[in-house]
């Protein structure tokens, strides 16, 4: 090596953990071998090398090496037996990947360097010194603070995750001291991750101030009696020996006895076939194609390399075999994702029985230390204790963190004293302000290399987004459970803790109290809140450790990563945007509904022959079945006549006048109370818009539901219901766009059941209901009577939902025998649908679940129930779920892809609402016509590239001033 050369040194161990935590889990399809970290490592190294070899981009290295930790047992353990003793074992699914990553490095034709007894940082320090002595420059590929002591005139660092160069100015900006003082600063602050003791109560900011005042550590310790702050002075004097020991532990050795010399680190041209052989063995198809294209190699002619996997005691790497809490890796044996799930399920139940170790963070410096520890760890469980369940209106009371080792911290920011006035008093003392806490936490919460684990992460996402913080990347145990176990149980944190931890979690009312003694969350004590919140976030982390590997074990990774996880941000943005409503329109509609309801009341009284409380089921039942003697009545367990909607609908279908009028009256009064009267109360005081909240894990099929207000249930089959939509408007100068999938469930049915007639009709753009009527009733499509088409439409949609002859008879007001004949004739004309239904029921009986076309599972364990009614219900649900669920998955995919598509087309349109098969957007007047084709194309191609539909999807879209006009 000579002057002008440039050495790149990659902190391989740091790369491993960043790759592992930044990317979703991945298993090799052929045998379930966990390879997610290998994939991330290869992609990161490929990108780094590609840029490094590009002479037009940054610095071009002449020499290159990847440096690894051999293990955590080094010479430092002889200095201090507790060094890194509190580090937990690496995740079980990561252990076999250590050896594979070393193989990957050699496949890239790069030096793979490690040395027993020394840390990778010591080897990096040694090579950096040798390069400097040779007159060359060095770039260390890492963001590890331990390496910042090496930064100087010839040595810089580069953080590839943030694409950021780290030189002397950046070190000073980050830590308040130059690189040459980083050793002294770390000696004072210690390191909770590596168990470096340091001096209690001294964080980076305080350490920097002390070093600026006294110059260096030795001078500080010698003159410690001059420190003015009592507690600080006492701590430094008392723990001076710990500071000196810590200095020896953090100081990097630059004289390691290296084997590979500098001249052996020359960066050679990439050997395409060698790398492709490894990538094919790992089954990384995308990267294989990229490498083949870049090296002009024929990947099809290259055989996959045979690679042995290091398991258990054969594996070595950072933290394997180190620390008092480390599990005996020699006992692991072969490990598959299913093995990992079983091992973790047992481990977390034992862990859940232990007391939760937590602290209350009351100062910014302590918080900064926790942030540093979380950043180093790469994994963080996170939760917000909020003042209400509405993320758009709630205030932050406290924030809770849990590190990978399970230690928790509660940060009070919004507790009130509650003892001064009717408003609950001012903010309590001894807590960090919300602004200061979020300012410190923002880089961590937005750091893509640190995984944020939560339950109902969308709630936290919305709360933080309003405060200028983007939670990234979130991992949600509620959604993990939903993907894995939909239909088998609840997904609340309490339910998950009971199922996976055998633990009963506290509920909020236990913290706040109930009845007259209840207090707002913000007026609870910090200690009680910390106990409550820490318990929840600790359980969240434990449950995540069980559920996450199940994705790979059960082949559900794609469903979670493609359909659920990305939707958190999409829905969070929609909830924040909200939609404008017109109070005057609602007021007018409310008056109209009141008048019509009053008219119905008069007619009801006239038919009944007396006035009574129409809203009273008891009085209605007594008149309907007692006084009037209408046949078909039945009594409930309480002895009252049943007047449910189903009972009244059936009586109305049989021609009874009073039940029909009661049904109509109920619909009108419900519209008035639920929408025209209630919607104005949902207008947000700051945004002046209505913000619904979407539940992602509420239905078994993947459909979203909304609440506060519920916009999914606005009836559109009646004229009065459709009028509600006229109140949803665009502000001046803007338009609403409604984009609605046309007959998507029938199209999905044609795809999954592979019905030739339906596929052809959709491909030709034929009226599907008219075509069905023509097939069934032998009536020409041209000039077809409206009534015939209406019957075919009812059958088409009824079949999807497993409608019975009784239900179809009621819907069409025809005899049950005629309805039964229609259904029989339908299956005769479309036998593929009958085959689909039978095969679906058989599959569900055998497996306990059914799947959508994208692999989402809906479980129906009661499909084998002995009770015929329960069994029949589950059979109908199992038939419908793949169809309705696939349609729901398609619109989810469209929502996930939408923002990127609009940005690529340079169209500014805001997605506001999702209602079943419809998306609502708001856009400037001038952008509306440009936005529509982009929206339509994105929705119609949403299934791609996962699969190609056998039938085309069609979207109707138009812009107008109100939702009703646009629909």
UniProtKB/TrEMBL annotation:
<dbReference type="InterPro" id="IPR020045">
    <property type="entry name" value="DNA_polI_H3TH"/>
</dbReference>
<keyword id="KW-0808">Transferase</keyword>
<dbReference type="InterPro" id="IPR018320">
    <property type="entry name" value="DNA_polymerase_1"/>
</dbReference>
<dbReference type="GO" id="GO:0008409">
    <property type="term" value="F:5'-3' exonuclease activity"/>
</dbReference>
<dbReference type="InterPro" id="IPR012337">
    <property type="entry name" value="RNaseH-like_sf"/>
</dbReference>
<comment type="subunit">
    <text>Single-chain monomer with multiple functions.</text>
</comment>
<dbReference type="Pfam" id="PF00476">
    <property type="entry name" value="DNA_pol_A"/>
</dbReference>
<keyword id="KW-0235">DNA replication</keyword>
<protein>
    <recommendedName>
        <fullName>DNA polymerase I</fullName>
        <ecNumber>2.7.7.7</ecNumber>
    </recommendedName>
</protein>
<dbReference type="Pfam" id="PF02739">
    <property type="entry name" value="5_3_exonuc_N"/>
</dbReference>
<dbReference type="GO" id="GO:0008408">
    <property type="term" value="F:3'-5' exonuclease activity"/>
</dbReference>
<keyword id="KW-0269">Exonuclease</keyword>
<feature type="domain" description="3'-5' exonuclease">
    <location>
        <begin position="358"/>
        <end position="552"/>
    </location>
</feature>
<dbReference type="InterPro" id="IPR002562">
    <property type="entry name" value="3'-5'_exonuclease_dom"/>
</dbReference>
<feature type="domain" description="5'-3' exonuclease">
    <location>
        <begin position="5"/>
        <end position="268"/>
    </location>
</feature>
<dbReference type="InterPro" id="IPR008918">
    <property type="entry name" value="HhH2"/>
</dbReference>
<keyword id="KW-0238">DNA-binding</keyword>
<keyword id="KW-0548">Nucleotidyltransferase</keyword>
<keyword id="KW-0234">DNA repair</keyword>
<dbReference type="GO" id="GO:0006261">
    <property type="term" value="P:DNA-templated DNA replication"/>
</dbReference>
<dbReference type="GO" id="GO:0006302">
    <property type="term" value="P:double-strand break repair"/>
</dbReference>
<dbReference type="InterPro" id="IPR036397">
    <property type="entry name" value="RNaseH_sf"/>
</dbReference>
<dbReference type="InterPro" id="IPR002421">
    <property type="entry name" value="5-3_exonuclease"/>
</dbReference>
<dbReference type="InterPro" id="IPR020046">
    <property type="entry name" value="5-3_exonucl_a-hlix_arch_N"/>
</dbReference>
<dbReference type="InterPro" id="IPR043502">
    <property type="entry name" value="DNA/RNA_pol_sf"/>
</dbReference>
<comment type="similarity">
    <text>Belongs to the DNA polymerase type-A family.</text>
</comment>
<dbReference type="InterPro" id="IPR002298">
    <property type="entry name" value="DNA_polymerase_A"/>
</dbReference>
<keyword id="KW-0540">Nuclease</keyword>
<dbReference type="InterPro" id="IPR019760">
    <property type="entry name" value="DNA-dir_DNA_pol_A_CS"/>
</dbReference>
<dbReference type="Pfam" id="PF01612">
    <property type="entry name" value="DNA_pol_A_exo1"/>
</dbReference>
<dbReference type="InterPro" id="IPR001098">
    <property type="entry name" value="DNA-dir_DNA_pol_A_palm_dom"/>
</dbReference>
<keyword id="KW-0227">DNA damage</keyword>
<feature type="region of interest" description="Disordered">
    <location>
        <begin position="315"/>
        <end position="335"/>
    </location>
</feature>
<feature type="domain" description="DNA-directed DNA polymerase family A palm">
    <location>
        <begin position="721"/>
        <end position="927"/>
    </location>
</feature>
<dbReference type="GO" id="GO:0003887">
    <property type="term" value="F:DNA-directed DNA polymerase activity"/>
</dbReference>
<dbReference type="InterPro" id="IPR029060">
    <property type="entry name" value="PIN-like_dom_sf"/>
</dbReference>
<keyword id="KW-0378">Hydrolase</keyword>
<keyword id="KW-0239">DNA-directed DNA polymerase</keyword>
<dbReference type="InterPro" id="IPR036279">
    <property type="entry name" value="5-3_exonuclease_C_sf"/>
</dbReference>
<dbReference type="Pfam" id="PF01367">
    <property type="entry name" value="5_3_exonuc"/>
</dbReference>
<dbReference type="GO" id="GO:0003677">
    <property type="term" value="F:DNA binding"/>
</dbReference>
<comment type="function">
    <text>In addition to polymerase activity, this DNA polymerase exhibits 3'-5' and 5'-3' exonuclease activity.</text>
</comment>
């Amino acid at each position: 090596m000579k002057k002008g050369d440039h050495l790149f040194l990659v902190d391989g161990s740091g790369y491993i953990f960043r790759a592992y935590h930044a990317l979703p889990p991945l298993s090799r399809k052929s045998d379930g071998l966990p390879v997610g970290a290998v994939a991330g490592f290869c992609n990161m190294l490929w990108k780094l090398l590609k840029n490094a070899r590009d002479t037009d981009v940054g610095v071009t290295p002449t020499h290159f090496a990847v440096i690894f930790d051999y293990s955590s047992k080094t010479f430092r353990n002889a200095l201090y037996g507790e060094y890194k003793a509190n580090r937990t074992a690496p995740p079980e699914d990561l252990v076999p990947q250590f050896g594979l990553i070393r193989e990957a490095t050699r496949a890239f034709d790069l030096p793979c360097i490690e040395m027993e007894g020394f840390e990778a940082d010591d080897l990096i320090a040694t090579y950096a010194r040798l390069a400097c002595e040779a007159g060359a420059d060095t770039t260390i590929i890492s963001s590890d603070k331990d390496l910042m002591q090496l930064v100087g005139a010839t040595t810089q660092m580069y953080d590839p995750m943030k694409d950021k160069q780290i030189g002397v100015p950046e070190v000073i900006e980050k830590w308040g001291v130059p690189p040459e003082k980083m050793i002294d600063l770390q000696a004072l602050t210690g390191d909770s991750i590596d168990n470096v003791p340091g001096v209690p109560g001294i964080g980076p900011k305080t350490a920097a101030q002390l070093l600026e005042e006294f110059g260096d550590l030795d001078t500080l310790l010698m003159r410690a009696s001059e420190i003015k702050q009592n507690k600080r002075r006492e701590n430094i004097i008392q723990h001076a020996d710990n500071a000196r020991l810590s200095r020896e532990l953090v100081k990097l050795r630059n004289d390691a006895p290296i084997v590979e010399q500098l001249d052996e680190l020359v960066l050679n041209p990439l050997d395409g076939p060698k790398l492709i052989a490894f990538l094919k063995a790992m089954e990384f198809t995308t990267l294989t194609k990229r490498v083949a294209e870049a090296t002009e190699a024929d990947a099809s002619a290259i055989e996959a390399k045979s690679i042995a996997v290091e398991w258990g005691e054969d594996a070595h790497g950072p933290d394997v075999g180190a620390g008092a809490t480390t599990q005996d890796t020699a006992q692991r044996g072969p490990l598959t994702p299913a093995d990992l799930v079983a091992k973790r399920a047992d481990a977390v139940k034992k862990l859940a029985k232990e007391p939760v170790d937590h602290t209350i963070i009351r100062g910014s410096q302590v918080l900064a230390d926790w942030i540093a520890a979380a950043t180093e760890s790469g994994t963080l469980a996170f939760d917000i204790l909020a003042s209400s369940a509405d993320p758009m209106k709630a205030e932050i009371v406290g924030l809770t963190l849990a590190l990978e080792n399970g230690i928790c911290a509660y940060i009070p920011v919004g507790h009130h004293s509650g003892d001064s006035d009717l408003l609950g008093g001012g903010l309590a003392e001894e807590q960090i302000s919300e602004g200061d806490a979020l300012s410190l936490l923002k880089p961590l919460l937005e750091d893509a290399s640190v995984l944020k684990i939560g339950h109902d992460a969308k709630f936290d996402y919305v709360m933080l987004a309003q405060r200028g913080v983007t939670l990234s990347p979130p991992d949600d145990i509620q959604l993990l459970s939903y993907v894995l176990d939909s239909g088998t149980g609840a997904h609340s944190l309490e339910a998950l803790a009971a199922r996976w931890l055998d633990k009963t979690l506290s509920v909020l009312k236990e913290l706040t109290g109930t009845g007259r003694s209840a207090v707002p969350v913000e007026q609870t004590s910090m200690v009680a809140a910390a106990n409550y919140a820490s318990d929840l976030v600790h359980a969240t982390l434990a449950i995540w450790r069980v559920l996450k590997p199940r994705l790979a074990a059960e082949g559900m990774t794609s469903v979670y990563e493609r359909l659920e996880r990305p939707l958190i941000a999409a829905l969070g943005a929609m909830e924040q945007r909200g939609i404008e409503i017109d109070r005057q329109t609602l007021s007018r509609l409310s008056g109209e509904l009141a008048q019509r309801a009053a008219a119905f009341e008069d007619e009801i009284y006239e038919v009944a022959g007396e006035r009574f409380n129409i809203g009273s089921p008891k009085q209605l039942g007594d008149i309907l079945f007692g006084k009037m003697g209408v046949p078909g009545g039945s009594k409930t367990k309480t002895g009252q006549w049943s007047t449910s909607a189903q009972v009244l609908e059936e009586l109305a279908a049989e021609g009874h006048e009073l039940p029909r009028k009661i049904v109509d009256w109920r619909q009108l009064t419900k519209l008035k109370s639920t929408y025209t009267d209630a919607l104005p109360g949902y207008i947000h005081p700051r945004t002046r818009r209505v913000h619904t909240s979407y539940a992602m894990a509420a239905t078994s099929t993947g459909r979203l539901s909304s609440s506060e207000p519920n916009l999914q249930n606005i009836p559109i089959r009646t004229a009065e219901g459709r009028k509600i939509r006229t109140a949803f408007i665009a502000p001046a100068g803007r338009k609403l766009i409604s984009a609605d999938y046309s007959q998507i469930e029938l199209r999905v049915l044609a795809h999954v059941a592979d019905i030739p007639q339906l596929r052809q009709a959709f491909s030709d753009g034929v009226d599907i209901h008219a075509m069905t009527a023509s097939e069934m009733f032998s009536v020409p499509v041209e000039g077809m009577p409206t009534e015939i088409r209406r019957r075919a439409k009812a059958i088409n949609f009824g079949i999807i939902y497993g409608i019975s002859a009784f239900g179809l008879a009621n819907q069409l007001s025809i005899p049950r025998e005629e309805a039964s004949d229609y259904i029989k004739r339908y299956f005769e004309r479309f036998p593929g649908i009958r085959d689909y239904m039978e095969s679906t029921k058989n599959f569900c009986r055998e497996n306990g679940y059914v799947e959508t076309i994208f692999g989402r599972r809906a479980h129906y364990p009661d499909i084998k129930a002995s009770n015929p009614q329960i069994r029949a219900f589950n059979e109908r649900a199992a038939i419908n779920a793949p169809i309705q669920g696939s349609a729901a998955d398609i619109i989810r995919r469209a929502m996930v892809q939408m923002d990127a598509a609009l940005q690529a087309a340079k169209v500014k349109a805001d997605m506001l609402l999702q209602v079943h098969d419809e998306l609502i957007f708001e856009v400037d007047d001038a952008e509306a016509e440009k936005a529509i084709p982009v929206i339509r194309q994105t929705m119609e191609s949403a299934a791609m590239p996962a699969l190609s539909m056998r039938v085309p999807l069609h979207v109707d879209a138009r812009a107008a001033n109100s939702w009703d006009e646009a629909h």
